[in-house]
Specification:
Blueprint (H helix, E strand, L loop, with lengths): L14 H14 L12 H8 L3 H13 L3 E4 L3 E4 L6 H6 L6 H13 L4 E2 L12 H9 L3 H6 L10 H13 L9 E4 L2 H12 L5 E6 L3 H9 L3 E8 L2 E2 L1 H11 L3 E4 L13 H14 L2 E5 L24 E6 L11 E4 L4 H12 L5 H12 L2 H27 L5 E2 L7 E5 L6 H10 L2 E2 L1 E2 L12 E5 L5 H21 L10
Parallel strand pairs: 3-14, 5-6, 5-8, 8-9, 9-10
Antiparallel strand pairs: 1-2, 4-11, 6-7, 10-11, 12-13, 13-16, 15-16
């Protein structure tokens, strides 16, 4: 069976991307098996009325992602790496937070898989030219400086600029109160190390962030989950947990919670702070999604209501720029601030100066805010595309969140459909989602799937949801299957 394409010149997607996506789809579903020779650039351009550079760009993208390979003098062929059945067959069986995280690089290594499993930005939207331009204009003295150890607390010039970013989130602070971290995850880990001993309890919203659960268990701590709804953590349940366990730490994502996308209501924010004061609990606020707001005014940080210095504020540039930058920052109350600095020095000495200076240049030049103004509407469009596809394709009985921001949608599957089975079968159809098991403290089988829409254009999201919906229908048709119990 030969290559077929449907070129839509009225669509917002560039023509080369349309060609690349349709070739990926046909490789994935077997219409273009491994070793198939693709049409020569000249022939494909003539047959479908596009320019040769358009076809070249499509082939270049496919080649870069491992879908095709070119043999000089012979042509372009579907790559052998595009068939990775053995890897795919081995994925999705350890659905603990650690197991899901360990699957991440294996999923990314398979060219035929399109991953909607991780809440990450689209790296193609990263302002690379701006970053390179800043580095190219850097004086030699500055260039040498970025190769040295940075101060443990973070580059002083960057912390000055971070004061202004935090002011945009409603926080008033000074550079001396800010600690730059190697991603938000390090900030969360440092807080737990500073406040807790092995065997202590950590209270978390449930469902909650996979990386946070993984870190809690790695430190030998005991997570205690508190149920939540679209308005955030349930305060009555939280007070019972505080009374029973007398914990020192409560972790929350009040703005566009991961994985549900929920925003904590004003009433619950005020009640949470009152409970924290009453029971002597430190609140760790994870605000990495706070600025990714699509529908309304950006909700302020929880810490803006903190008059008792009970909230440790943690955020990062990972969700707005690139997750690989590993650059976060935090504001912690005294004397916790000094304790965290000592722990950070003993962990990695400092966050690399290179990434700090890149972020500094983007902020000082105004390009960071320009970048946000550009990407936020694009992510909103992708959110809308995913929700539209869910309404169109998902069978009766399925429900899902409609987040006002963030990068994920929380899907509840119809009765009798197990998320672990759906996850593995979707992998075999070429798409990776995140099964709900990994977001719960007890790692129990359940009927939830997380869809992350940030890294893909609307065309991929449409196809992904269509495939997911068909997998769910197939499971319904097959009848109830025994739930898979993932290893502990």
């Amino acid at each position: 069976m030969g290559l077929s394409l449907n070129i839509n010149r009225r669509a917002g997607q560039p023509l080369y991307r349309q060609i690349a996506e349709q070739i990926r789809t046909q490789i994935r579903d077997g219409r273009l098996p491994v070793g198939t020779r693709l049409p020569p650039i000249r022939t494909l351009a003539a047959d479908f009325g596009v320019t040769r550079p358009t076809v070249e760009s499509a082939y270049d993208e496919l080649r870069a992602d491992g879908w095709v390979e070119t043999a000089v003098g012979r042509g372009t062929f579907v790559a052998r790496e595009a068939a990775a059945d053995e890897v795919i067959q081995s994925l999705g069986f350890n659905l603990t937070p650690t197991g899901v995280l360990l699957d991440m690089p294996r999923i990314e290594s398979v060219a035929t898989l399109r991953s909607l499993a991780y809440a990450e930005p689209d790296l193609n939207l990263f302002p690379l030219d701006d970053m390179l331009g800043s580095l190219n204009h850097m004086r030699r003295a500055d260039a040498v400086d970025i190769l040295r150890y940075a101060p443990t607390q973070g580059d002083a010039a960057l912390r000055i600029e971070l004061v202004n970013l935090l002011r945009d989130r409603g926080l008033e602070t000074v550079p001396e109160n800010i600690i730059v971290t190697t991603g938000a995850t390090q900030g969360l880990s440092l807080v737990m190390q500073a406040l807790l001993d092995r065997g202590d309890h950590v209270v978390v919203e449930e469902p909650t962030h996979i990386c946070l659960l993984n870190a809690i268990k790695a430190f030998g701590l005991n997570p205690v989950g508190v149920p939540m709804d679209e308005d955030g953590v349930k305060i009555d349940k939280l007070e019972r947990i505080f009374t029973q366990y007398r914990p020192r730490v409560f972790y929350t994502v009040p703005n566009y919670q991961n994985p549900t996308g929920a925003v904590m209501s004003q009433y619950r924010r005020e009640k949470l702070l009152a409970l924290a004061k009453q029971y002597g609990v430190i609140i760790v606020e994870d605000d990495v999604y706070g600025v990714l707001s699509y529908d309304n005014v950006v909700p302020p940080a929880l810490k803006t209501l903190d008059t008792e210095d009970l909230v440790v504020y943690v955020t990062s540039a990972s969700k707005t720029l690139a997750n690989g930058m590993r650059l976060g920052y935090m504001v912690a109350p005294e004397p916790l601030h000094e304790h965290i600095l000592r722990l950070k020095y003993g962990t990695d000495i400092s966050t690399p100066m290179l990434t700090q200076r890149i972020f500094l240049q983007l902020i000082q030049s105004g390009r960071y805010k320009t970048h946000l103004k550009r990407v936020v509407p694009l992510y909103a469009e992708r959110r809308d595309a995913a929700l539209r596809a869910l309404r169109t394709h998902m069978p009766a009985g399925a429900t899902w969140s409609a987040p006002g921001g963030g990068l994920s949608i929380w899907v509840t599957l119809p009765d009798g459909v197990d998320s672990a089975t759906v996850h593995r079968n979707a992998l075999r159809q070429g798409f990776a989602f995140t099964p709900g098991d990994a977001f719960f403290v007890c790692n129990k089988p359940n009927a939830h799937i997380r869809i992350c829409f940030g890294a893909h254009n609307p065309y991929v999201l449409e196809e992904a949801v269509r495939v997911l919906a068909q997998v769910v229908r197939d499971e319904q048709a097959a009848g109830k299957t025994p739930p898979y119990i993932s290893p502990q």
